[in-house]
Each structure stands twice: as structure tokens, then as C-alpha cells.
Design a protein that fits this description.
2 domains; 13 helices; binds adenosine-5'-triphosphate; Rossmann fold; Beta Polymerase, domain 2; 5-stranded parallel β-sheet; 4-stranded mixed β-sheet; binds dephospho coenzyme A
């Protein structure tokens, strides 16, 4: 199964993209829809909202009065956090059940407006960001949804900035032109990257050919190494840590915290994106390198027997060499034993 996280600021065009991906065969898990299901009339979620915000957020039909609650939470960050704490865990468990029920060869696309804000980027093989300038999104909300411009601005302010979101992107779909351009870019992403990625992963092989990060609209914008470390950190079993290649010898003293630094993408190493990155996964004494290697494969980086042969099996060399199943990413992930001195 290939897990894709689709995100973008409000009115960026996520629904247009997820609609197209559904037509192409993806299984869509829509967080906005699940957030409605989580607070349906008579649900424990709605009960909790009423005990937190009072009866004024429920209409005469016993359903959530969405405009009333929206007016409260988009004007007040504390109220919004309270609402998120009620709704988000429910959305996550509803989503997990849908993902678990999908076929093994499926491409599952989770459409999550707050994917970056909630720190979920690392759990996806591919994070796709639909991107449009704030002014254009405000214009869409005002013209197409009849929203007041100030309300539209408040919703944008309640979310991550474009820069923060783009930093998490493995692929960007720009949506500042007409709809046909967005649909064509979505098709190119599906045919040129998502399907080969899914097939390579299913076959347990790295991408045999690179389409290159320069392919228009397909590359992420920055921090490839940090994004890779976050993906690895989210699947590694106990006893394994991830750090940038070249910092494994203990010189930085960072190895103890490397799992966490990988998740934030904030540690040293290559955080620019020249389309190439390397990471090293260190296996502590007593941990099973085979299980670690299997986890690296599951994160989207199958083992590359050819690269292992080229490197040889010299003492102190890597236990395994992995490369991306994603044809647009050029990276090496080595699995090695933690040096005794570290
Ligand atoms: C506040 C509510 C009642 C307003 O309902 P309304 O029908 O006006 O908006 P809708 O749910 O269709 O959301 C539209 C868009 O608003 C943005 N948005 C919604 N909730 C939030 C939030 N808590 N923080 C930031 N942006 C949000 C998203 O971009 C979303 O796609 C509703 O959005 C809600 O229950 N939000 C909390 C749950 C949530 O975070 N949903 C987003 C994905 S899980
Ligand atoms: N390139 C475009 N040209 C014209 N209209 C567009 C374009 N992209 C999106 N739209 C329109 O803008 C609105 C917002 O798009 P869409 O619903 O896909 O955004 P979204 O990211 O799913 O928003 P939300 O976060 O609210 O769920 C829709 O009415 C859509 O048809």
C-alpha cells in the first residue's frame, strides 16, 4: 500500500486534486468528512463539544451549528485548540480504520487540511501539497463560498503558513492558474510518480530509473534529508536511530537524540534540496538489523543488493543499503551497527 498525505491551505484546491486522484483509482480518506462524522447528531463527540462550548453551538435540529462554532474558534486560538482536542483523535481513529480496510495494492490518499500543523508528515510515503497564494485563496472563499473577507483571512491565519507547508512537501501541485493546469499536474504526478512508486514498493525494489527532481511540479522544495529522516523515524523499531550520513561516528554527540532530531528535520547535515540526500540508520547492540531493514523498506526505501555489492562487506561497512522506491528521489539510506564508542 502506498500512503499519500494530501494537504494545502484552505481553498488551495485539495478537493479538486482528491477528486481527480479518486477518478484515477486512489482510495480517498477525507479528514473534513470524518470530522463531520465525529460530531454527528447524538454522537459522543457532539456531547463533548456541547459540554465544552455550551448549548449555543447546537441548532434546533440537534446538529452542530457549524457557523456558530466556526465564529468562536477562528477568533480564539484557545477555543480552537479545545475543539481540535475533541475532534482530532476521533478523526484519526476513523481514518485508521479506513486505511486498515484498504487493499494491499491500493494507493491511499489521506486528505488532511492540518497535516503539517499536527506533525503527521513523517507517516506518509509521499506528502503532496496543493499550493496557492493567500490572496487567491481568500478570493476563492469570498467569490465561491460567499465568505466574508475577514473571516477568510482568519481561517488562513489559523493554519500553517505557505512556507511551513512547502517545507514538508515531497511534491508540490501549484494551483495559481486554471483548473485544467491543476488536473494535468495531478495526472502527471499520478502517472509519473505515484504509480511507479506504488509498484516499486510492492515489488520490494528501489526505483530502477530516476525521473529526476527537476520534472516540473514533481519535486519538493527543500529539506529532502530532513523529510527522509522523519519518514524513517516514524517506523523504526526500538534500538534503531536515524541521523544524517556522515555524523554516525559520534563526533557530533548527537546520536542519542537522533530519532527525535530526524522527526523534526532540525538537525545538521543536508537540509537543502539538491534532489539528493543520505541518511544512516544505526542499530544498537542486541537489536535485530533484519527488522530495522524491513522497517526502512516499509518507509519507502527498499534494499538495493547492487549497491551493497558495490560497497563490499568490509568490516565497519553498512549492514544493508537502501534506496527510494520513489522515482523522483535520489537518496541512500544505510543500515549499520552503532559503533561501540558511540
Ligand atoms: C469549526 C468548524 C465547525 C467549522 O465548520 P465549517 O463547515 O465552517 O468548515 P469545514 O469543516 O468545512 O472546514 C473548512 C476548512 O476550514 C479549515 N479548518 C477547519 N477546522 C480548522 C481548525 N481547527 N484549524 C484550522 N483550520 C481549520 C480547513 O481548511 C477546512 O478544510 C469545523 O471546521 C470543525 O469542526 N473544525 C475542527 C475539526 C478540524 O480540525 N477539521 C479540519 C481537518 S480534521
Ligand atoms: N485553479 C482554479 N481555478 C478556479 N477555481 C478553482 C481553482 N482551484 C480551485 N478552485 C475552486 O476554489 C474552491 C476551493 O477549491 P477546493 O474546494 O478544491 O479547495 P480545498 O483545498 O479542498 O478547500 P478546503 O480546505 O476548504 O476543503 C472550489 O470552489 C474550487 O472549485
Amino acid at each position: 500500500m502506498l500512503r499519500v498525505g494530501l494537504t494545502g491551505g484552505i481553498a488551495a484546491g485539495k478537493s479538486v486534486v482528491s477528486g481527480r486522484l479518486a477518478e484515477r483509482g486512489a482510495v480517498i480518506v477525507d479528514a473534513d468528512l470524518l470530522a463531520r462524522e465525529a460530531v454527528a447528531p447524538g454522537s459522543p463527540g457532539l456531547d463533548e463539544i456541547v459540554s465544552t462550548f455550551g448549548p449555543s453551538v447546537v441548532g434546533p435540529d440537534d446538529a452542530l451549528d457549524r457557523p456558530a462554532l466556526g465564529a468562536l474558534v477562528f477568533a480564539d486560538a484557545t477555543a480552537r485548540e479545545r475543539l481540535n482536542a475533541i475532534v482530532h483523535p476521533r478523526v484519526r481513529s476513523l481514518a485508521a480504520a479506513l486505511v486498515d480496510g484498504a487493499a494491499e495494492d491500493a494507493v491511499v490518499v489521506e486528505d488532511i487540511p492540518l497535516l503539517v500543523e499536527t506533525g503527521q508528515a513523517g507517516r506518509f510515503h509521499l506528502v503532496v501539497v496543493v499550493d496557492a497564494p493567500d490572496a487567491l485563496r481568500i478570493d476563492r472563499m469570498v467569490r465561491r463560498r460567499g465568505m466574508d473577507p475577514d473571516d477568510a483571512g482568519r481561517r488562513i491565519a489559523a493554519q500553517a503558513s505557505r512556507t511551513e507547508r512547502l517545507r514538508a512537501a515531497d511534491a508540490v501541485l501549484p494551483n495559481d492558474r486554471d483548473l485544467d493546469d491543476l488536473l494535468a499536474a495531478t495526472d502527471a504526478l499520478w502517472d509519473g510518480r505515484i504509480l511507479p512508486f506504488r509498484d516499486n514498493l510492492a515489488a520490494g525494489r528501489p526505483a530502477p530509473e530516476q525521473i529526476g527532481p527537476a520534472a516540473a511540479g514533481l519535486a519538493g522544495t527543500s529539506g529532502l534529508a530532513g523529510r527522509i529522516r522523519a519518514k524513517l523515524a516514524s517506523v523504526l523499531p526500538p534500538g534503531a536511530t536515524v541521523e544524517p550520513e556522515g555524523e554516525a561516528e559520534g563526533a557530533s554527540g548527537a546520536s542519542g537524540a537522533s530519532g527525535a532530531s530526524g522527526a523534526s528535520g532540525a538537525s545538521g547535515g543536508d537540509d537543502g534540496d539538491d534532489g539528493r540526500a543520505a541518511a544512516r540508520v544505526l542499530v544498537a547492540p542486541g537489536a535485530d538489523p533484519g527488522a530495522v531493514s524491513a522497517a526502512v523498506t516499509a518507509a519507502g526505501f527498499p534494499r538495493d543488493p547492487g549497491a551493497e555489492l558495490r560497497r563490499g562487506r568490509s568490516a565497519g561497512g553498512p549492514w544493508a543499503v537502501h534506496r527510494p522506491a520513489d522515482p523522483a528521489v535520489d537518496a541512500t539510506v544505510t543500515v549499520a551497527f552503532l559503533p561501540p564508542s558511540a
